[in-house]
Amino acid sequence: MTSSADRFSPAACPRLVVKIGSALLVDDGGEVRRNWLAGLVADVAARHRAGQKIAVVSSGAVALGARRLGLAKGGRASLEDAQAAAATGQIALSQCWAELLHEQGLTAAQMLVTLDDLEDRRRYLNAASTLDRLLSLGVVPVINENDSVATEEIRFGDNDRLAARIGQAAEAQGVILLSDIDGLYTANPHRDPQARLVPEVRRIDARIRAMADAGSASGMGSGGMVSKLQAARIAQHSGTHLAIISGKRDHPLASFDADGVGTVFIGERIGGARKAWLAGRLTAKGRIRVDAGAGRALAQGGSLLAAGATAVEGRFARGDVVDIVGGDGEVIARGLSEYDAADAALIVGKRSDALADILGYAPRSALVHRDHLVLL
What we know:
Largest sheet: 8 strands, mixed
Helix content: 25-40%
Number of strands: 13
Radius of gyration: 22 Å
CATH architecture of the largest domain: 3-Layer(aba) Sandwich
Structural class: alpha/beta
CATH superfamily of the largest domain: Acetylglutamate kinase-like
Oligomer: single chain
Order of helices and strands: EHHEHHEHHEHEEHHEHEHEHEEEHHE
CATH class of the largest domain: Alpha Beta
């Protein structure tokens, strides 16, 4: 019988990203759970010997640094504390990964990235190139958000979404999120004894989002089930399968291989690499609101015309990423604007034959062209 874990086997998934949260890697005293981590590294080594290339997204730097510096609230009392804790803890975290991987005959590499590194197209491609070279050399990249320079306004904030974006950049076929819970449940299992594990999700709709709980069971990490669903959406748009499985057992990857317990989100690519990158972005420069007719046209593969827009929000230039928002306030698409915000605001709701007189120059064919647009 085929198991959902088979989608993440070395044969089906030549490249895999594994994310480990702080609550799994660091104990209550602020020390690395070295024995548990050694078991995970043994799992990674076994997969590597079977031909799978693995990148690791590892939390834990802030928690480790906070203990060494004696900072309150796990180093998260202020942005400055978090940055100092991250700078201190990252050294210890990297050393631990390097030592344990070396014991298994593997070489570790460190990559620290910021949100901007993956939101800017050119920097994203640079990061993707580095990842590709490291993986092709048989190295295990250990990746974390660069919390020592990230700000509250410009950061991922959790490593779930970072892992999904790294999965895109690495052209991975699978992403596994090791969690303090063994998957998505129909309700919070800590509060509802009738809650049931959802083994597979093909589409993240309102029903699935309603199952998510924003809290983290440990209080140590920054991501809850909401962030994991956001990560799953990013992965799915790239055609990448994503699994949420329990990391609260020894050898979690081998255990998943054996019993397949977890929730697997099935990836289905929506377009080329550029459109997948667009869909996975976490930020946009502005928003264009549209009427129901424009929403239907977009769903059928059309461009966004000025006549279908109802309002423009934010400050953006031509070529910037904008979200396209339906009447219910939901983001239905994302794309590159053909106009800056000021000119877009002038032509909202106007027919194409009126645009030249309004703008004083020959108008472009669309506010957002279908070639530079992706449905969400």
